[in-house]
Structures are given as structure tokens and as C-alpha cells.
Amino acid sequence: MQRIEHIYINGAFVTPHGSEWFDLFNPATEEVIGQVRLGDADDARRAIAAAKAAFPAFSRTSREQRLAMLQRMQAAMAAREDELFDAIVTEYGAPVSRARWMAAYSHQVIGEAAATLAEYAFEHSAGSARVVMKPLGVAGLITPWNSDAGFICGKLAIAMAAGCTAVIKPSEMSALQTQIVMEALHEADLPPGVANIVNGRGDVVGAQISAHPDVAKISFTGSTAVGRAILRSGADTLKRVTLELGGKSPTIVLDDADLATVMPLVVSAGFMNSGQACIAGTRILVPASRLAECEAAIVEQVRATPSGNPRDPATAIGPMVSARQWQRVQGYIRRGIEEGARVLIGGEGRPDGITRGWLVKPTVFTDARNDMTIAREEIFGPVLTIIPYRDEAEAIAIANDTSYGLHAYVLTGDSARGARVAAQIEAGRVLVNTLTHEPKAPFGGFKQSGIGRENSHYGLEAYLEPQAIVVGQL
Ligand code: NAD
Questions:
Q1: 454 in catalytic set
Q2: Which of 464, 468, 460, 472 is nearest to 126 (CA)?
Q3: Nearest atom, ligand 1, residue 209 CA
Q4: Mutate to test the pocket of ligand 1, among 143, 181, 278 (most ligand atoms within 8 A of CB)
Q5: Residue 317 in contact with residue 306, Cβ under 8 Å?
Q6: What angle do CA 384, 148, 428 make, to 5 degrees?
Q7: What separation in Å is there between the alpha carbon of 258 and the centre of ligand 1?
Q8: 0.85 exceeded by pTM
Q9: What is the pLDDT of residues 159-181, one digit of tens each?
Q10: Residue 173 gets which letter from DSSP?
Q11: By the 8 A CB rule, do 66 and 163 touch?
Q12: Residue 444, Ramachandran bin (φ over 0: left; ψ between -120 and 50: alpha; else beta)
């Protein structure tokens, strides 16, 4: 039983003013595995004050100095990869193959930020003006539980690359991973106050950060509902805001696709991160003329994608992160049945033979329409919905008939046709015949999937403000 008592402020581990203890669970066994002491609004204010005090000196550091800090951070996180992997499996329930990727990503993403910093031109001329890109100030970084260490490291590294100091509010459900990140940051020997981490509740610590006048910028990854609340509370002080929110991404299987080739991609995109992925392809658009064939192929593929103990290497889908999330997913499965969709495979309850753990039966609905709740709302679990379309134009129309616009997938026997279809989809990223992550490309959503972009110079500029200086002759 691990007890996490400290938060990280001004280069030191400190006991929070907040006194609430929050239970940590192993979602595969439902057992309490630890407790974390949560900070409160006072702690958030102390962290913001530390970041504010550190900003003037840090904002004037050179590119080389910041690169050296990022390299130390990356090395410290890389040295913790195995420990982080274990925490991800234990506390989050990611299957081992996914957890290994997530643990490696947490240090690789710091390397990506360093590469962006190494190349970026902070100054250029515009007509008679000299334009200098200046860091915004204190950045508030608020992250969800579905990739805790990766989001903390990614947001912090790019904020630091820009010359901003940071206050981080991670998910309270991810305290084991956060603790490892805190220790690695301490080992990286950053100047005090540059990176501060406050465990705490969203409506307490997160709300304080998003309203505080000394915070210039918020970068938030999480639900659309909380993203809206953050935008509202940041409005009073006109905070710059990057929001990476939810999705209801379409996977379009074009009529020329070879089903044996594409179905593994369809199911992997849908059940990615145990279905707890903002970019999961959860609406499967298939040609009506090939519906029966697609249904048979997807059933076969889902049978080969078992949900179970995350430590078993054969497991493809781990448990939901919490009892609440499990109930939420069950509620959507029930709703789908009530609204008249047909369960093709899966359904309510745990997978056969499993009595403990927040595991969900991998579920696919068919005979569904795009106006059903299961096709409109983000479920955040391994639940997919097949929707038939008549022709390519209708497939594109259904794909775009959503309030979200984060991601989309197009699968086809003809890549050039796939690229043409991709260009007509309203989403921040469209993958054609691949599931490969491209860390150098902008990442973010159209419509209610968010505001702004992360990654590469797009992500760096979200922490910078251009200042134009024009010098005349008197
Ligand atoms: P959430 O929105 O409930 O919480 C995210 C973070 O915000 C947590 O740290 C939480 O404590 C904090 N928070 C909650 N209320 C707050 C408030 N009033 N003010 C400030 N902060 C507050 O989301 P979650 O349940 O942790 O994560 C799942 C959601 O995240 C899904 O909707 C998913 O789509 C989204 N997500 C998006 C991306 C992306 O990049 N677009 C990536 C991962 C997850």
C-alpha cells in the first residue's frame, strides 16, 4: 500500500495544505492499492506563486540552457521507464504492450519538444519590424487519467521549450505515475519553481489554476464539458487556452477495401487504449452493399481481441480506470439496446469467466443510425457502432455529422482515393490506411474537439506571443 503524501512546489517535495486522502485502485482487481493526499486551492496558489517568481529568470534562459534541461528531463524519465511501466499497468490497467508504449512515449515526447526547440526561429523580420516570439508566462497544465505521464511530460516539455514556467494538475486517479514524474523532474535538477505539480481535485485545484490572474495560459486535455468550464473561467483574465477534448471519430471503410486487411486496423483503432482514447475510431462506416460481410469480419476480429488481465500478454483490452467509468460504459451499452441498435457481439456485464475488475465485454452494435446516443456521445470504453452508408458522398456526410472533429480513419484499396476522401473530413487528423502516430504533425480538434494544436512548432507557438518592434529614424 503506497501513501503519496507530497506535492512538488518550488523545487521541493512539500506536504500539502489540503488534508483529504484519496484512494487509489488497481482496476484489474478493484483493490485499494494506495492513497494520495490531495492539495487544495491554497496549494494551487502557492504553486502559481512559485512559477510566477521563477518566470522572469527562466524566460531569459538561452535555447542551449533550455535544451540542456530538457535533455536532463528526458534522461531522468528514460531511467524510470520500467518503474513507470509497472505503475501504468497497476494503477491504470493498460495491457502490457500498450503500457510499454506509454512508458516509452513519456520520455520520447520530451525529445520531440527538444527537437522543436533546437530548430525554432524565435526572431524574424516582417517588413520594417523585428518580430520576437516571447513566452506567455505561467502555464497551467491540466491532464486526464488515460495517459497521465505522457501528457504531463509532453505539455511541460513544450511549455519549458517556450520559456514558460508551469503548474501541473494531473488526474488524481494517476498518482503513482505522477509520483514517478515528480521524482524524475527533481532528479533533472530544474531551477526551482519552473515545474510545480499539485495533486488535487479538478473542481478545486484545477478550477483555481484556470481562474487565477497570474496564470497566462492553460493547456487542458480532458472532457469537452470541463474544457468549456475552463474556457469560461479563463475569460475574465483573457487566458490563452489550448483545449484537447473528446471525439467520436469515424472509421470509413470504403467499398474497395479488402476486409481481411483492414478489419484488424478497424478494431485496433476502435479499442485503442482499452477504448479509453480520445482518438478511438468508434463509428464504423461501412458500405451497405457489404454490411453482412463487414459484420462477419468484425465479429471474427473482435473475438481475437480479448479483454482481461492486463498483465497477460494475450490481453488486448484492459479494465476501465474506475468503477464510475465502468458504470458509465455499461449505461451506454444499455442505452444502445434501448434505442434499437442490435448487439452484434458483446453486451452488458463483464467478459465471460471474469468476476472481478472493471472489465467490459468488447461490444459492437449494428443496425444503428448516426442520430442514436451511442453514435453521438463519447463512450470512452470498448464499444463500437457500425453505421451503413449508400455511397462515398453519404459516408463523408455521416462522418462529418458530429459535434466533434478530432480524428478520422479511412481504409481503402486505393490510397489516392483515401487521401481525396480524407480531405473532405472535418477533423484535425485523418489517417488513411495506417494507425501510425506522427509526432511532428499538429494534433488537435476541429469543432467541439478543442481549440489549438499540440506538437511541433504549432504546439510551441501556443506558449508564445509575437512582439513586433519597429524602430524609426527621427
Ligand atoms: P475530465 O475532463 O473529467 O478531467 C480532466 C482533468 O481536468 C482532470 O485532471 C480533472 O481533475 C480536471 N478537472 C475536472 N474538473 C475541472 C474543473 N472544473 N476545472 C479544471 N480542471 C478540472 O476528463 P477525464 O475523465 O479525466 O478524461 C477523459 C476525457 O478526456 C475524455 O472525454 C477524453 O476524450 C478526453 N481526452 C482528450 C484527449 C485529447 O487529446 N483530445 C486525450 C485524452 C483524453
A1: no
A2: 468
A3: 20
A4: 278
A5: yes
A6: 55
A7: 37
A8: yes
A9: 999 999 999 999 999 999 999 99
A10: G
A11: yes
A12: left
